[in-house]
Amino acid sequence: MNTELLEALNILEKEKDISKETLLDAIENSLMNACKNHFGKTDNIKLIMNKETCEYQLYAEKTVVEEVEDKLEQISLEDAKEIIELETVSLIENSFTLGYKLSNPAFLSVPDAIINIGHSCGYCFQVLNDMEPFSAPHINQKYKGNINYDFEKHRKNIVISYLYGCCTQRERKQLETTSDFEYLCRLVKKYDVLATLLNELESEIIEIMQQCLYFKNSNLQYYNDFKKFLMVMFNICYKKCELPLKNELFNN
Q1: Contact 252, 231 (CB under 8 A)
Q2: How far apart are CA 1 and CA 8, in angstroms?
Q3: pLDDT, tens digit, for every residue of 166-202?
Q4: Whole-angstrom Cα distance, residue 99 to residue 229?
Q5: At CB < 8 A and 24+ separation, what contacts does 15-23 make?
Q6: Confidence class of residue 20 from pLDDT cuts 50, 70 and 90?
Q7: Which pick of 97, 130, 147, 224 has the fewest CB atoms within 10 Å?
Q8: Residue 179: phi, psi to the nearest 5?
């Protein structure tokens, strides 16, 4: 809820005798005019405003293309993928929150445990996604294409980023200029990066299961169902990456 804006509108409505509806319409028009002045047009600009909470979202709808001809209405496939990758953890976290609310209408609030689990799972799934090119290259290259070698991008492949931090200065310089996948694989094996990340994932899973204990004490049926769901999800992700998963990690 946009508390500050809501309070300001309530005061104006009371003191100036201007309805909140009229004020919100004026705000919407001002936002759209500002976009038009800045971008030159607003054909693809969308504004969603909740007039009860005064929360609003302003975004641009763009078409994903191979080559961008109009920056206002188009976005490259590479940039679109980067945005999705940057938001992966938030998307997973929000989906867990939504799933919890939909599982039972009686759940009026979302416990911190769900938010923490969603965040940790989002991180784990992103790590597994970044490990896949190295653990199952024949699958990854067939369906996903090249990985992100560009160190100027906001989000790099986690394996490469980790590798960049532990290799020698000479290797680091070559990493910044190479697109030789075989060379990357040799370095990943040399520094045992996949094993290190697998250990980190195991620690994350243990922490996730500790968070799940909150539901074991408050809602045993939900705990059992949710635990089963997590096991299935992680098994699917690990199998896709051709990585071993210790099912005992889910016992607590």
Answers
A1: no
A2: 13
A3: 888 898 888 777 778 888 889 999 999 999 999 999 9
A4: 12
A5: 20/51, 21/51
A6: confident
A7: 224
A8: -130, 25
